[in-house]
Amino acid sequence: SNSTSTPSIIVIMVTSRSLLALSVLSAAALLHSLPLYLLIIGSTIPVLVESRSNDADKSKKRSSIHLEEDLFNRALAHAGMIESQQGPSNGDDRITERLRGGDVEALYEVAKSMNDSGDKISSVLIWHALADDGSQGDDYETYESGLEYDYEGHVPSALALGFSYYDVDKARSLHYFLMATSKKGMPHQAAMFNAGRLYLELEDPSGALAYLRECATLDRAHPAYARPQLSITCKKAYNTLSNELVEHSDMGLEEAIECFPYAHMDNFPLPNSREHQVFDGAMERLEKYMGVVRSNSGGEIMSNSARTKATKHLTAAIEALMNFKSSNRNELSKLQVYLMGYMLERITNLRNKLEGENKHGNYDEL
User: Fold this and answer.
1) Closest Cα partner for 15 from 3, 5, 25, 2?
2) Among candidate residues 152, 175, 149, 148, the one with its CA nearest the CA of residue 164
3) C-alpha to C-alpha distance for 308 and 328, rounded to whole angstroms
4) Strand runs (DSSP E) across 1-63, as ranges?
5) Which 3 state secondary structure label does DSSP give 227?
6) What is the pLDDT of residue 298?
7) Residue 49 β-bridge partners
């Protein structure tokens, strides 16, 4: 279950609804498409299939996979059909025997064949059994941008479910792509690209920047899992999105703040660096300002002391960001220069409102 073991799975997702220009994706290869079919849960008796894998490098494996009995029998019947079409094979190499022995890859292969032959529902059910991570269950919100928690499910099945849910439930589709990127030490570049594309369609530019950048730069940290053509495609997509945000963006202050850490291809400012600490210090000041605003959210007029405290936090944030900008002028990307200017403008406007115009209890949040 790594990024090179399943060449029959889609590696690029192309959709005209994306804000990215289609010309950016002209180098991408669309290998296969998985149509979505709604998941139907049966009421048959569960079968426990012991998982077996030949990959000795995997330190964490689920000990069992739960399948409905009827579903397992359908998979066995389809495996028998595959064997009849392929001709005789030796004992343990028969796909039916591999299924009975708990071979996860055999079950995935059968599910894909079932999908290709028209049994979409069964294939999706099997992919769920393989992909859903027992340690996380259906709490898909735990798959946050950039986190790598050592996903225990089957990566190709998670990727297949990402495509299966794409047309009717983009949020769930995204979560399965995120699951596919979360195998510790085994990053999946195609899943990163598709996660970035879906974040963009869901109007989350920071997530799009984060995952397109991860895809574009994967060859630096994990060259064995990066494909040169896909790295180039991701870099072009990242640059196109960055330019679009500079030229046509209509984001709020909070979005600008969220985008800033992902707005540089080389990850400037680096985590734990002095520059990063300066930027974080400015963000802490904004959080303190928000704390003052929330304490007066009932609409009552802000006291002079609270007004003074809120103004002090905004002024400190402005000074920190101006210092950051002047000290790192040559390091900032074009998008970061734009975002920094936008943040300073918006925060300055907040301070001006606080000082002069807004004296009746209607205080702005970020």
Assistant:
1) 25
2) 175
3) 30
4) 46-50
5) coil
6) 60
7) 65
* pLDDT tens, position by position, 132-173: 865 443 444 444 444 455 788 899 999 999 999 999 899 999
Q: Is 50 helix (H, G, I), strand (E, B) or coil?
A: strand
Question: For 62, which DSSP code?
Answer: -
Lookup: tokens for 38 = 């709604």
Amino acid letter, residue 283: M
By C-alpha distance, which of 48, 28, 4, 97 is closest to 235?
A: 28
**What is the C-alpha separation between 210 and 198, in angstroms, rounded?**
12
Contact 188, 159 (CB under 8 A): yes
- For residue 330, what is the DSSP state? T
Dihedral through CA 231, CA 233, CA 234, CA 239, nearest 10? 120
- Nearest alpha-carbon partner for 117 in 170, 155, 77, 57: 77
Q: How is residue 128 written in tokens?
A: 């769920």
Q: Under DSSP, is residue 238 helix (H, G, I), strand (E, B) or coil?
A: helix
Alpha-helical regions (H) of the chain? 69-86, 95-100, 104-116, 120-131, 155-164, 170-181, 189-201, 205-216, 218-221, 228-248, 253-259, 274-294, 304-327, 334-352
CA–CA dist 236, 10 (Å, integer): 19
Here the tokens at position 79 are 């495996």
Contact, 9 vs 160, CB < 8 A? Answer: yes
Kindly calculate the radius of gyration of the chain based on its CA atoms and give it in whole angstroms: 25
Compute the distance between CA of residue 176 and CA of residue 140 in angstroms, rounded to an integer.
8
User: Nearest CA to 93 among 105, 275, 169, 222?
Assistant: 105
Give the number of other Cβ atoms within 10 Å of residue 84's Cβ: 9
Residue type, 65: I
Q: Which residues pair with residue 258 across a beta bridge?
A: none
Question: Which positions of the chain have pLDDT values less than 50?
Answer: 1-61, 135-147, 358, 361
238 Cβ partners below 8 Å, 6+ apart?
A: 196, 209, 212, 213, 216, 265
